[in-house]
Design a protein that fits this description.
With 259 residues, the chain is an alpha/beta fold. The protein has eight helices and seven strands. α1 runs parallel beside α2. Keywords: Oxidoreductase.
Amino acid sequence: MDLGISGRNALVCGASAGLGYACANALAHEGVAVTITGRDVVKLEAAADRLRAETGAKITIAAGDITTEEGRAAALAVCPAPDILVTNAGGPPSGDFRQFTDVQWQAALNANMLTPIALIRAVVDGMVARRFGRIVNITSAAVKAPMQGLTLSNTARTGLTGFVAGVSREVAWANVIINNILPGPFDTGRLRRNLSPGPEIDNQAAERGMAAWAARIPARRVGNPAEFGAACAFLCSAHAGFIVGQNILLDGGEFNSTM
């Protein structure tokens, strides 16, 4: 299927690895010119080189912390008028909510709620004026089923979900479409680190952890990041204009619900 977005410009956050990279890759394969952001300029440049080699697309980088005003300004200086925005930021730490400080709460809200809102605010009016825009927020399956110990993430991402529910319906008339993708377990470096007992990735421990998780999932496996990227690319496509303000859960059926 031709997604009808060749020649468009995209800004994809947190795209040096993992799900952000998978989204950038899928969009680049569709002929989209992609700007990728990330904190580590070396990793970001390596990711850009891989994307160029794999897709032949125009790839630019905007190094910086997207959760800061300076990082967002740097990204928007490189890609000032994106047709497509994919927001993505790493999740906050787990733990007992009683132990979190105000600084930790503010950091979680900033990274996983206020930063996406700031980026949407910066680009949405231009999208409305051009009568085309696609915004996809990478959130978490915890929005549907809050996870024990992930109170910071549960709270911040649910706040973003409420914001998107309202604003997505305010701009859909202009063919500006905003949705969220809620990932369950995907085989990324982040998941492997989370399943490793020490500070470094232990692939054997990670494989055991993923196998145990897969046993609880109807699909009997964790997700492939390429699947996530393909879903994101479709939501960014010319064919997704009637999908408004939705929370698309990609979890292999782990969350059991009729709705």
